[in-house]
Amino acid sequence: MSTATRTTPATGTGLFGRNVLNKVPEVTIYFWIIKILCTTVGETGADNLSSRYNLSDATLAYYTGAILVAVLVFVFAFNKYIPLFYWAGIVLISVVGTLITDNLVDNHGVALHTTTIIFSIATIASFAIWYGVERTLSIHSIVTLRREVFYWVTVLFTFALGTAAGDYIAETSGLGYWKSIILFGGSIAVITVAHLKFGLNAIFAFWAAYVLTRPLGASIGDYMSQAKADGGLALGTNTTSYIFLGTILALVVYLSITRVDQTPPEAEALPA
């Protein structure tokens, strides 16, 4: 789906008000495909790191979080959207969000329904503060550093929320992986139809679908990686992660060459 609503670039001054070209990709089919692939890698990648290096989720979250910060330095340093850095950030934030949730559940005994509530509140608060300050939640308006910071903080919370809610529905409820794929994929389809056919607000539709891609991707990853006895295809987290990382890399290279997901300069000046 596309978030058609655009806002005029801000004219603020100073570090947080500096004007840049829109720092996120256009919402095309490539955006949704890569986003789901990234969420799958977040699930299988986190599991793979835990089993391979025998480190706690908290320790891994610190390490991957440090790498994420380093990547975001590059994301913030450029005044336009760079596919390689942007999607590297999304992959890493998916892993970090998964590790944060897993750490709370596995190491601190926080129930999945509790983490779902916690991250729901955090996500809503992030949206509320962002809107209260900027008066827009459109991803077509990420043209200042302050909006960019709001965007990435909100994305982190949506990943953590999607992990908690997805695990709660797929595992605690006993729904299973392939049924969860149908549930979350169907929910996204309903939102898409509601937007395209019945006028559901574009920005609300985008963020609702964005949150749901996280549990969808996680369910796909678990279905492919987990043992057949647990309802999976038994490909393992290592193989599954490499399959999706390779696909992400190929698509990012394609987008870097073709630039088909970059906002046209003339479109950025369209009024809200």
TrEMBL record:
<feature type="transmembrane region" description="Helical">
    <location>
        <begin position="60"/>
        <end position="78"/>
    </location>
</feature>
<feature type="transmembrane region" description="Helical">
    <location>
        <begin position="111"/>
        <end position="133"/>
    </location>
</feature>
<feature type="transmembrane region" description="Helical">
    <location>
        <begin position="181"/>
        <end position="212"/>
    </location>
</feature>
<protein>
    <recommendedName>
        <fullName>Membrane-anchored protein</fullName>
    </recommendedName>
</protein>
<dbReference type="InterPro" id="IPR007136">
    <property type="entry name" value="DUF347"/>
</dbReference>
<feature type="transmembrane region" description="Helical">
    <location>
        <begin position="85"/>
        <end position="105"/>
    </location>
</feature>
<feature type="transmembrane region" description="Helical">
    <location>
        <begin position="149"/>
        <end position="169"/>
    </location>
</feature>
<dbReference type="Pfam" id="PF03988">
    <property type="entry name" value="DUF347"/>
</dbReference>
<keyword id="KW-0472">Membrane</keyword>
<feature type="transmembrane region" description="Helical">
    <location>
        <begin position="233"/>
        <end position="257"/>
    </location>
</feature>
<keyword id="KW-0812">Transmembrane</keyword>
<keyword id="KW-1133">Transmembrane helix</keyword>
